[in-house]
Write a structure and sequence with these properties.
Length: 190
């Protein structure tokens, strides 16, 4: 004689199976969330590092005499030594350094945070017309760019302390917000 399962036995088996499946799905979801968190955190650190390296590379060549720091607007405008033609060097006929950007003594470099786009922007600006010549995005997901002079005025400024903070939400615009922050102190070479 064949023995069949009772309705209660089937319901208990289905309940146990549902519980095991929900546990497996929950563990998979937590693992996936951890992977997403690590991936986004790494991207934020890379963005902050990329922006910081670009600023430090340029600012290292700057001089405090050719520097304008807007601490409220979080932007810095400066010049670096330039070679204006292939048969010259960075010094003019009087032995003074030629200051400018991208091989032009009438250009400046500006780093700023663009608010709505949340990007760190590097621009070459024509000093005479204040027009932007070129624009390069140095970092994305930029939440904050802080610039501080050192030492504090009234002493001669010898450099800048730069803090870059990148932030992004995990899985859309709700939930956990991840961030990466880098700080660097740049002493002017010139």
């Amino acid at each position: 004689m064949k023995r069949a399962f009772t309705l209660i036995e089937l319901m208990v088996a289905v309940g146990i199976l549902a519980l095991l499946l929900s546990l497996a799905f929950s563990m998979f979801n937590m693992g996936n969330l951890g992977l997403d968190t690590s991936r986004i955190q790494l991207r934020l650190q890379q963005e902050a590092r990329r922006g910081m390296e670009a600023m430090v590379r340029d600012l290292y060549q700057a001089s405090a005499t050719n520097l304008t720091v807007d601490l409220i607007g979080n932007r810095v405008i400066f010049k670096v030594p330039v070679v204006v033609s292939p048969d010259t060097d960075i010094y003019d006929e009087n032995g003074n350094i030629r200051w400018g950007a991208e091989g032009n003594a009438n250009h400046s470099i500006r780093y700023s945070r663009e608010g709505s786009s949340r990007q760190l922007i590097r621009e070459i600006i024509d000093d005479a017309t204040n027009n932007v010549i070129t624009t390069v995005v140095c970092a994305n997901n930029l939440q904050q760019l802080r610039l501080r002079r050192f030492p504090n005025p009234p002493q001669q400024i010898r450099g800048l302390i730069i803090t870059i903070t990148c932030q992004k939400y995990l899985r859309g615009n709700s939930g956990t917000q991840l961030s990466a922050e880098l700080e660097s102190q740049v002493s002017f070479r010139n």
